[in-house]
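=== RUN LOG ===
request id: a7f3
mode: sequence -> structure
chains: 1
length: 308
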Amino acid sequence: MNTDTIPVSGVDDLEKHLDQLVSDPTLPPDSKLFDHVELQMTGTLNFPPEHALRSPAPSANLLAMTILAKAAKSPSDAAILAANMKSIITSFLTRWLSAPQVEVGEKGSKVLGDLLDIDSDTRPPEGLAVSGVEIAVRKAPGQGAMWRRIFHDRDVYGLILSLCSNGPHQNAEPPQQLSLAQGRLLRILPRLSALNLAAVTKSHFPELHRRYANSEGVGGLLYFAALHMIDKEDILMHLSLIDFFETMISIQRITPFSTYKMDTLRTLYREASKKDDMLKNAILSLPERTVPEEADELRQFIHDISAN
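=== RESULT ===
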């Protein structure tokens, strides 16, 4: 990422305004100032996005995420961000999972997915799309630096688990914020699973899984989200979990075959469908709710992962 600065008018005023917003969250954000600075942004980091990520103003958060998205233009830029800007990454992940605004969550999911896509050092040989929605773009393999930062850095990995799990550490947050964080993680995992299934199904920190999920963490972040994270008595979150399984299975059907993939999906299906007829029936009936030209192959795929 080119860090040479290009003069941008209004940056000093914006930084002062961000300080004011952090000090007094009741102040209204100056939308014109944010728009003025954003319109001048090029491919460089013209001011530290970490400052804007800490602001309670969604316009500041969106501006910061727009800047970070520039690192998803090339593997080298993503690698520089991952290697040299850990504090920015942790601030970004915190805002992505903690912001109450839907638009901030959606923007964060897109930026994180794009960063991990461009940086993935193992990817499908061709681009992937399900029902016209692009899952992975056909590109040269990346360096894997962002994946290592997310999944091999204890602080960063633990941050995600803590923000998406219930417990005493969540006492200061309203209950609906936990649901938002969990929903955002569920929505991004099918895409990440298509890019690098091994990374999301293995954990280097089983002690963190014991702390936040009362599990051994053998299956990594994917197992945490699919089997341990959701309170199924929460009807809306249970429906979100079902939607997650339907999306993941639909995507995994078109990824390259591997014994590891099939074993993983069989384990997830078996464990998740125990004492959960609603989830089981939704998965088994999924071919009836997909486009006709994909129904037969999807039906066979589901049979392969659900058969005893």
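=== NOTES ===
Residues 241-308 form one domain.
The CA atoms of residues 31 and 59 lie 7 Å apart.
=== END ===
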